[in-house]
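Retro notes
What went well: the complex prediction finally ran end to end.
Inputs used:
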Amino acid sequence: MKIAIASGKGGTGKTTVSTNLASLLAESENVVLTDLDVEEPNSGLFISGKKIREEDKFKMIPEWKKDECILCGNCQKVCNFNAVMKLGKMIMVFPELCHGCYACSELCPTKSLPMIPKKMGELKHFKSGNLDFIESKLIIGEEQAVPLIKQTLDYVDENFPKRTIKIFDAPPGTSCPVIEATKDADLILLVTEPTPFGLHDLILAIETMKELKKEMGVIINRFGIGDNNVEKYCEENNIPIIAKIPNMRKIAEIYSGGNLIYTKIPEVKIQLESIISFISEYQQENVL
Amino acid sequence: MKILLTTKGTEWDSKMDPRFGRTEFFFIYDEETEKIDIYDNRSIANEAHGAGPKTAQIMSEYNINVLITGNGPGGNAGAVVSQMGIKVFVGAGEMTVKEAFDAYKNGDLRET
């Protein structure tokens, strides 16, 4: 079963929920936690384990061979991302803009743009008891998160049985990386804060997930600040609120130290247990 | 010298556009012939990615010697500009086209 922890707004507590939920679940069963926020993964700050695998990840980009090129400019015409440009008597490739679609390469009449692998990031796999933790990270300068997220999801699919609970710490927002990180998930948990800004971005996330026809639940973090408009909205739109994590200075202090929270604050553990029962109910209803 | 300025309009007293990749117009002035050439780049607003290289590609077809802009091209467009051997002067983002051109002639703009 795949559960994506997402949010509209950044900084609402996706990583807090992901790491604590995965660790609590791992006390009684096998769990895979995967950090898909490949532009700035941070779940690893809270999970210690033994590194069991490390892989470089590559994307395919075109490389210009000038000898046979007739400078027809077809490559530039077919590229949707402005990643290949004809400049005077040369063709320039912008690897960071390239989406690896092969169009320029396949449609080149003289085969002057062969595709070559370019390293885009690294995947690391750690293990600690029942918990497998996988983290991918783009190398500096890489702009394309989607191909690395896709390859990371493939790694999870290839290495773990279907039934195992898999938690994906998704990137924030509603753009392409979020779609990639959530599109295969059975269940989406949206973490928000009860403020006007939190609600605004939560609505964007909910609308996106509705478009993807996803089941979802909302987790309110820092409950107690702001107002009650998130609750009102969820009620009016029939979206279950499955946990309310209280706003406590102590939580921020523990988080800042890179530690798990539920082991020290019972109120948080109660909220996580409520998330776990929501997940089990979903599992039973859908035979996952 | 053929000089390209990134602008928000088509006249000497128009405002400069501080952006390179997403500039609204090219204002191209040929010092020898004293001819002005305008390129309307406003459709660049539709590009989600790669505005810099795209604008740089169009610029490359004008065979210019000097680029005057506000903030200067970013990494991708900058690679094109240096490939073409174009001199880049920045810091003219808040001026009019005429002021930017005069500042360049007086050596008041920073070359990157």
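What we learned: The domain at 2-58+121-286 of chain A is CATH 3.40.50.300 (Rossmann fold).
What to try next: split runs per interface for comparison.
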